[in-house]
Amino acid sequence: MKAFSTMTVAALLAAGAASVAAAQAQSPPGQAGSGSDQSSPSAASSPHQRQATGSAGSESATATGANPEDASSPSQHQAMKHSTSADMSEAKTAGATPETFVMAAAQDGMAEVALAKVALSKSNNTEVKEFAQKMQQDHTQAGQQLEAIAKTKGIAIPAKLDAKHEAMVKSVSAKSGAAFDQAYAQHMAKGHAKAVALFESASKSSDPDLAAFAQKTLPTLEVHKQLADNLEASTGTRTAASHGGSQSR
User: Fold this and answer.
1) How far apart are alpha carbons 16 and 95 in whole angstroms?
2) 42-62: pLDDT as tens digits
3) Contact 92, 197 (CB under 8 A)
4) CA of 120: how far to CAs of 58, 115, 202, in Å?
5) pTM score > 0.70 for this model?
6) What pLDDT, in 10s, does the model give residues 185-244?
7) Hey, what CATH topology would domain 82-241 get?
8) For residue 104, how many other CB atoms are within 10 A of its CB?
9) Alpha-carbon torsion 211, 213, 219, 220, what sign?
């Protein structure tokens, strides 16, 4: 199996940095820092506006429920940026119990491999295909290790995807071209955010074998997450550029 090239990893990391730089360059003066945020209550022109702005900000934070400051570790802090509060809560809860951790990790891993196979057959994007190849290799290996541990404990491993994961794979697989690349990258970023939270929770498991497995696998998932974030930025930029080009014709 072809190794995930150093050049491709560097390209993905550079794409992520370029995306951030472009976003900062396009931001109007006065909006670069939180101190000049127009939604800040101190920026309102009257007491009534200050009160309304402050209330709106509080309601927005409550509605999303995914404040990165609530994360219990740097890994979860980064992961929460691309995942909802419900996703994070579900992942952390699943990771707390051996049986639910095995089920969640197995389902997510099988879905990653299934999507990687689709990406390898459908995508024409070299970065997407090489990323998918790494996902197939790493998640297949992790799945085999998890299955071996689970068997010693009498915990059943699912033989196929459940309805939720199967529907997700079908939804992404139905797309083509740049739309597929973007959907795949977006799912990889969000999916690995949840995976980081799941494995961080399991790393504190009462089962020492599963805890050790989670601790061993977590650094790989964090690398996957970084690469997925950069791939999402890269494919998003390409999609936007292609749309702009078609509109200018």
Assistant:
1) 30
2) 444 444 444 444 444 444 433
3) yes
4) 44, 9, 31
5) no
6) 999 999 999 999 999 999 999 999 999 999 999 999 999 999 999 999 999 865 555 555
7) Ferritin (1.20.1260)
8) 23
9) negative
